[in-house]
Write a structure and sequence with these properties.
Layout: H1 2-16, H2 21-63
C-alpha cells in the first residue's frame, strides 16, 4: 500500500509539472514553420529562378 501511494504521488506530480512545456511548444512550432518554408521553396524555387533570369535578360537587352 505504501509503495502504491508513492507511485500515485509521483505520477500526480509528474502530470502537474509543466515546466519546459512552452519551450517544447516553440520548438515544434518553429520546426513546422521551417518545414513549410522548405516545402514552398522546393515547389516554387525553380520557377522563381527562371523568372528572375528571364527578367534580368529582358532588362539587359533593353539597356543596350
Amino acid at each position: 500500500m505504501m509503495q502504491e501511494n508513492k507511485i500515485n504521488t509521483f505520477l500526480d506530480r509528474f502530470r502537474n509539472n509543466d515546466r519546459g512545456a512552452v519551450t517544447v511548444d516553440w520548438v515544434v512550432i518553429t520546426a513546422g514553420v521551417l518545414a513549410l518554408l522548405l516545402s514552398i521553396m522546393a515547389l516554387v524555387g525553380s520557377e522563381a529562378e527562371t523568372l528572375a533570369t528571364e527578367t534580368g535578360t529582358f532588362i539587359r537587352e533593353r539597356g543596350e
